[in-house]
Write a structure and sequence with these properties.
Distance between the termini of chain A: 54 Å
Distance between the termini of chain B: 46 Å
Number of strands of chain A: 5
Strand order of the largest sheet of chain B: 3-4-9-5-6
Structural class of chain A: alpha+beta
Structural class of chain B: alpha+beta
CATH architecture of the largest domain in chain B: 2-Layer Sandwich
Helix content of chain B: 25-40%
Largest sheet of chain A: 5 strands, mixed
Low-confidence stretches of chain B: none
Oligomer: heterodimer
Strand content of chain B: 15-25%
Largest interface: A-B, 27 and 24 residues
CATH class of the largest domain in chain A: Alpha Beta
Number of strands of chain B: 13
Radius of gyration of chain B: 18 Å
Largest sheet of chain B: 5 strands, antiparallel
Mean pLDDT of chain A: 96
Number of helices of chain A: 5
CATH topology of the largest domain in chain A: Ubiquitin-like (UB roll)
Low-confidence stretches of chain A: none
Shape of chain B: globular
Radius of gyration of chain A: 16 Å
Number of helices of chain B: 11
Chain lengths: 158, 278
Amino acid sequence: MAGVAVSTTINGDAVEYLCQPDETLLEVLRDRLGLTGAKEGCGTGDCGACSVILDDRLVCSCLVLGAEAEGRRVETVEGMAHGDKLHPLQQKFLEHAALQCGICTPGFLIAAKDLLAKNPSPTEEEIRFGLAGNLCRCTGYDKIVRAVQDAANVMRGA
Amino acid sequence: MEDAVGILADSSGTAAILAGGSDLLVRMKGGFIEPDLIVDIKAVAGLSDIRETAEGFSIGAAVPSAVLGENAALKKAWPGVVEAARLIGSKQVQGRCTIVGNLCNASPAADSVPAMVAAGAKAVVVGPSGRRTIPVETVPAGPGRTSLAKGEIIEAILLDKRPPHAGDAYLRFIPRTEMDIAVVSAGVNLTIDDKGSVKTARVALGAAAPTVLLVEEAAEVLVGSKLDEATLERLAKVCSGACRPIDDKRGTIEFRRKVAGVLARRAATTAYQRAGGK
C-alpha cells in the first residue's frame, strides 16, 4: 500500500512524514517520529494518555489518522519545556508528586495546558471536569488537581 | 462535495466516511471494519461551519461538539440539542465528535439523536442522484445501520428558527457522573402560548428500542396542558409504555421502562421552564 505524504507542524517545527492511510497520529508520533511522550493506554479514546493539541483543540491522538495532520498544528508534551526549563505545569507536577507510574502524565500535562490556555483561573470543579477525559490509576487525582491549581497561580503571575 | 459522493459511489469494497473519527477509528482498531477507502469530509468546503439562516441553523457535518457548545446563538435557541451533543465522550472526544457522526453510527444510545429528533431536526443528504432533506429519525435503521444508500453523505443538520416561548431539553441516565453511554434517555421540545399552555410538543426516547423513538402519543399528552402533575404522570406512563428496550449489563427492561418515564417528565419540565412557562 502506498504511503500518504504529510506536511505538518509539530511543536512549532515543520515536519514531513510518510504514513499508511489507516495509521493513527499516535502511531506516527511514536513509531515514525520518535516522539514517545504521548502514550497508548486504551487506543479507543477513553483514557486520554495519548492527548495532543491539534489546531488549539485537545484531542486523543489515537482517534486521529496520521494523514489528517496535513497542514495542521500539533502540540505534544515534548514541546512544553524550553530546553532545560520545565513548563510550570511540569514543575508543579514534580513538586506536588502528581504522578507515580507516569504513564498518564504526558496526557494530563497536555490536557491541563489546554485547560489553562482557555481558562487561566479554573475552580477545582472546573479542573476536575476539564481533566475528566484523562484517567490515572495511581494518584487518586487530588495531587494532580493541586499541581494544576498551583501552576495556574504561577502562570497568572500570582 | 460532488467529488466525495462520486468517489464513494464508484468505490468497490468497504468504504467509510471520516468526520471526527471517534467511532470509526475505534471500530478500525477493534477489527470490526477494515475500510478499503476512507473519505475524510472535513476538507469539503462549508462542512465545518454553523450557519444561521432565515430558516434557522445549518450545522455542517464536520462541526465538532465542542464548537456547538461555543456557539452562543445556537445554545440560546436549542439548549437541549447542544447539551446532548456536549454529553458525548470526554473533552478530547468533544474536540472531534460530530452530531452527524453520532447519527450515522446508529447506536440506539446516541446522545444527540433523541435531542435532534425532539427538535424536529432534518438531515441534508447528498448522493449520486442529488440532494434531499429528510427527518433525522428516518436515518437510523437499526443498531449500526442507516437508511442511507451507497454514495450518500449527510452534509448538514438543519434546525428551525425558534418562535417565542420555545424550549428543549435532553436528559440521560448513566451510573457515573459523565463519560458514559446512556442507559436510557429522553429529549423533549415544546412551544407554549402566552397563557403558558403547550402549543406543540415532540418527545423522543433513546436506548429504549433498536432505534430512537419519536413518541407521538406523549406529545399529545403535553399539548394543551400547563404541565400539571396529572399531565406529567400520564407523560411518564406513556413513555414507559412506548419503550421496547433490551436487557443488558447496563440496565434491565424494567429499569429502562421506569427511568424513561422519569427522564421524559424531568426533560419536559426543563423544556417548559426554558420556554418561559412556570
